[in-house]
Amino acid sequence: MYERQVSQVHRISRRDFVKATIAGSIGAAVLPDMTKGQDTKQTETRYIAAYDTELPACLAACRKIVEVHKRFEMPATFFILGKTLDANPAEYRKLLDDPLFEIASHTYTHQMLRDNDFCGSAVSMDERRKEIFKGKEAVERVFERPCIGLRPGCGFDNALRGEPEVLELIKEAGFQYVSSLLWGPDYSLPALLREPFNYDAEGFPDIWELPGHGWHENLLKDHNRWGPRRLTLWPPPFPEAIPHGFCKTPKDEFDVNKVFLDKAIDTDKPFVSLIWHPWSLAKFDPDMKMLELTFTHVRGLRLKACTYAELHKYVCDSGELL
Ligand SMILES: [Zn+2]
Predict the structure, then answer these.
(1) Assigned domain for 20 exists
(2) When comparing pLDDT for 280 and 16, which is higher?
(3) CA 157 / ligand 1 centre spacing (Å)
(4) Confidence (pTM)
(5) Is the bond leading into 89 cis (omega within 30 degrees of zero)?
(6) 153 alpha carbon to ligand 1 midpoint, in Å?
(7) Tens digits of per-residue pLDDT, 256-291?
(8) What is the CATH number of the domain that holds 164?
(9) What is the Å distance from ligand 1's center to 42 Cα?
């Protein structure tokens, strides 16, 4: 429902834009203006750099990542595990306390909030409550600002659909969005370019799902040492996004990223965000060349860079307008 409404808004605003461009171009250089109009049209798609920050090695990696973000003036959302944050609170505060960055939760210790085919079974409801509440408390205590978003460890292939008890805890904790749809159908990869939706069907219309897209980049490099696994679907819904083998260079990884960025624009998606982990990025690419390549491409495409919190505001505002 929401997806259809947003694309209608885009269509209307684009038509108006083209009309305005034509009207404003009378007597001027029409062709260059129309070219500009094409470019402007593409910027309706947002780009979010996001990091699942979850291991001791993430701190040193985040120092390098933050340097690239400041150089590119690129916003980001850091989903941080409470336990990881509590191990180095002052360092993380100093590093990430910047208006460019949103700090959100990645639960407290990465326990499963629902069953995941690859990562294991859900823990008890008491444990799930702790994961949700303590994770949020850690972010708010360390950064002294509200934490409105939650990305559950590993994510799921059906988001939190059909999990009203978990959604109740998330609501009670005061989260406004979750980013839990991080797999394709039947726990395949990549996660498809799914659009935001709310949990109205479960009785929580005020909680939004803002998915993640693409590969869990650690798996593209075999950093979990899983080796070959049954990860892709047949027939593949997005064959061009499946590389022939593990990534060997930052350019290989960028080439995979590029497929998602380009496709998000081509198919008029409201946003695109890849699933990245600081520890894995630094292990593979200590100079963060992939980030430079990706951010340069994002700027070239004129994607609107933002955080998940800003996307959340956008989807709420769009809902109110309709
Ligand atoms: Zn994680």
Answers:
(1) no
(2) 280
(3) 15
(4) 0.87
(5) no
(6) 4
(7) 999 999 999 999 999 999 999 999 999 999 999 999
(8) 3.20.20.370
(9) 31
